[in-house]
C-alpha cells in the first residue's frame, strides 16, 4: 500500500514554523564520501563528513525588482483542476498511461488522490512518486507531493536523498518567494525542513528531508536521510478536508 502524505501533516508544520527560524540544535544530514553536486554546493551544502550545523537561516530579502513566485500547482497540473484535467496534465507532463495512474482515498479526511511513479523526476535523482490530492468539498486539486525513498526506488541512498534536497533547495532559493516566508535548515520531529516558502496568496512549497537522528560527539545530532518530501500546497492553514461540525460531539 502506498503512503500518501496529505495536507494535515503540513498544517502543524507550518504553524510551528510561522514564528520564523529556530535553532538548528546541531542537526546535520549524515553523508559519506559522495560529493554534493555544484548546485548543492552553491546552496551551502554540508561537507561530505558530518560537521557542526549552522543555525537555521532565513534567505535574504528579495530585491525590489524581484517578482514574487506564484505557486499555482506543479507543471501542467494547476490548483483547482478537476481529476480529469489533472490526469490529462499528467499525460502531457510525463506521458503517463491511464493504467500507470493509481487512485487512493483517505477515509478520515474524505479526500481522493491519484499517484504516479516518475523515473528521473529530478535529473539523476532516481524514481519519485507523485501524489495529486483532491479536496473533500471542491473535488479539485489542493496539493501535489513528490516522495523519494527506498519505497519509490530500491537504489535510493542517503547520499542521493541529500543531494536531491540540496539541488532543490538551491533552486527554490532563487525563485522569489515572499522574503518573510522563507526558512531553511530547520529541524522538526523526524527530519529537517530544507526549505519553506510562500507566495503572495500564501500558497506554499515545503521541502522536508526525513530520517533518523543519532547523537554524535559534542552532542551533535546527525540525520541519516530515509526520504525526501516535496509539497506544493494551495492552503495548508485551512485545507479542504472533512471536519466534524462544531457542537456535534
Q: What would your notes on this structure say?
A:
The chain has 249 residues and is α+β, with helices and mostly antiparallel strands. It has one domain (8-60, 72-206, 217-233). It is 17% helix and 29% strand. The protein is built from four helices and eleven strands, in the order H-E-H-E-E-H-E-E-E-E-H-E-E-E-E. It has helices at 8-17, 38-42, 83-94, 158-173; strands spanning 27-29, 73-74, 77-78, 102-106, 111-118, 128-134, 141-149, 186-188, 191-198, 204-215, 221-233. Strands 1, 4, 5, 6, 7, 8, 9, 10 and 11 form a nine-stranded mixed sheet that branches. A two-stranded antiparallel sheet has the order 2-3. The protein is globular, with a radius of gyration of 18 Å. Residues 1-9 and 14-66 have low confidence and may be disordered.
